[in-house]
Amino acid sequence: MRRWLLWLPFLAFVLLFAVVTFGLKKPADRTIKSAMVGKPLPDFALAGIVPGKPGLSSRDFTPGKPRLLNVFASWCLPCIAEAPQLMALKQAGVEIDAVAVRDTTPALQEFLARNGDPYARIGDDRQSSVQLSIGSSGVPETFLIDAQGKIIEQHIGDIRADDVPDILAKLRAAQ
Amino acid sequence: MKRTLLPLLLLLAAPALADSNLPPAALANTQLKDPALEAKARDLMYTLRCLVCQGQSIADSDAEMAGDMRALVRQRIAQGESPDSVRRWLVARYGDYVTYDPPFSWVTAPLWLAPLVMLGIGAWLARGSFKRKKR
Amino acid sequence: MIAESGLAALWLAGALAALQLILAALGIARNHDDAMAAVRPVAVVQGLLAVVAMALLITVFMRSDMSVLLVAANSHSDKPWLYKFAGAWGNHEGSMLLWVTILGVAGAAVALLEHRVDKRTLIATLGAQAAIALGFYAFLLFSSNPFARLNPAPADGNGLNTLGITAGSYWAYYELGWGGWWFWDPVENASLMPWLAATALLHSVTVLATRDGLRAWTVMLAVVAFSMSMIGTFLVRSGILTSVHAFAVDPERGAFILALLAIYIGGALILFAARVGTVRAGNTFEAVSREGALVVNNLLLSVVLGLVLWGTLYPIVAAAFGVQLSIGPPFFDKTAGPIALILVAIMGAGPLMRWRRDGGREVLRRMAVPGAAALVTLVMFLIFARGIGILPLLGLTLAAGLAAASVAPLWKRNLRRTPLFTFGMVIAHLGIAVSLAGMASDSAFTQQVLIATKLGEPQHVGPFTVTLDSIVPVVGPNYSALEATLTARRGDSAAFTLKPQSRFFATPATVTSESAIATKLDGQLYTVLGQQDEQGRWQLRLWWKPFVTFIWLGGALIALGGVLSLFGRLWRERRWKRDDEEALA
Question: ipTM score of the complex?
Answer without folding.
Answer: 0.87
